[in-house]
Backbone:
């Protein structure tokens, strides 16, 4: 596509981006009635919603992870289910089961809480492997199998999962194949002093703000359509590929010191999600084209759970975030 064509296409898209930005602002305002601060977390949840990708939120208890997801669901006219994952949970508790009817002598399917639009998987790493396997099919295929039949899940379908990083007793490490299905992994931190004071004032009484439904699933689908048409230049495409390949072949990108620190680099799913997330980042910023800065902004959330660090990195107290940041600092920006 020539520069003139790109400019015309970008200009044509701007009225739609501005119209959809009003829906985004309404959503943010409703969520802000309950959630103080946490702008990063809210924006990433909205990004996942528009990009049709699942999110894993990691943070200590009490940081409003569950409340933020519940509030976002309340602001959308759509289905919502919350499942508290426990060691005794069974796949049927998620997907449903077949029930025998003696009167007719046949089986009828009773659908489980998985059949919804927004699924909050609370403490996801407390459920055993069979449950994770059932969830894996839903996340990847947008369908579940009950008995011999496959049932499609509603559209949109989004898994928003939380996990606690500090209490590991009674938890099951998530399979790498499942972790890779999450578009974003967010690290949620503490609020600052003014935010905590406002949280205290707002929540230390029994009267909680009421959240109105301001967006419909049709609005979400329109946002997705507009975000899909955000322009991505070939040079930015190459930049995304370079970033992902630098996690696999760091020596090629002047990152020889990372070769012994990374056990496994990011999968091709990282390139797909980095592209989708960058487009949505541009859309949410009110632009019709992606910049390298968009890629840098969303990159850590897309890559931190896809770059597996070695024992040597752990011995040096280095995390995947540290290595990903070094990659972004070194790879040439177009």
Residues:
């Amino acid at each position: 596509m020539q520069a003139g064509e790109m400019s015309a296409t970008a200009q044509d898209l701007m009225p739609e981006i501005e119209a959809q930005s009003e829906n985004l602002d309404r959503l943010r305002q409703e969520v802000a009635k309950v959630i103080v601060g946490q702008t990063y977390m809210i924006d990433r949840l909205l990004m996942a919603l528009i990009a049709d990708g699942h999110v894993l939120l990691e943070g200590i208890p009490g940081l409003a992870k569950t409340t933020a997801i519940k509030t976002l669901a309340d602001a959308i006219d759509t289905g919502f289910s919350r499942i508290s994952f426990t060691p005794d949970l069974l796949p049927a508790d998620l997907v449903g089961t077949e029930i025998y009817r003696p009167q007719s002598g046949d089986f009828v399917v009773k659908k489980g809480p998985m059949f919804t639009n927004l699924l909050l998987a609370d403490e996801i790493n407390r459920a055993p492997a069979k449950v994770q396997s059932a969830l894996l099919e839903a996340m990847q295929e947008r369908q579940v199998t009950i008995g011999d039949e496959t049932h499609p899940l509603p559209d949109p379908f989004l898994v928003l999962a939380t996990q606690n990083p500090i209490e590991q007793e009674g938890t099951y490490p998530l399979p790498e194949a499942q972790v890779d299905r999450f578009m974003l992994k967010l690290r949620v931190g503490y609020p600052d002093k003014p935010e905590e004071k406002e949280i205290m004032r707002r929540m230390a009484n029994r009267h909680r703000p009421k959240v109105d439904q301001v967006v419909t699933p049709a609005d979400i689908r329109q946002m997705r359509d507009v975000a899909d048409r955000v322009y991505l230049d070939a040079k930015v495409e190459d930049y995304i590929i370079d970033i992902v390949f630098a996690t696999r072949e760091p020596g090629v990108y002047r990152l020889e010191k990372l070769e012994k620190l990374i056990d496994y680099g990011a999968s091709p799913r990282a390139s797909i999600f980095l592209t989708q997330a960058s487009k949505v980042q541009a859309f949410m910023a009110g632009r019709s084209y992606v910049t390298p800065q968009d890629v840098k902004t969303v990159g850590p959330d897309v890559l931190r759970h896809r770059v597996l660090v070695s024992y040597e990195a752990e011995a040096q107290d280095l995390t995947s975030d540290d290595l990903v940041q070094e990659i972004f600092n070194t790879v040439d920006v177009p």
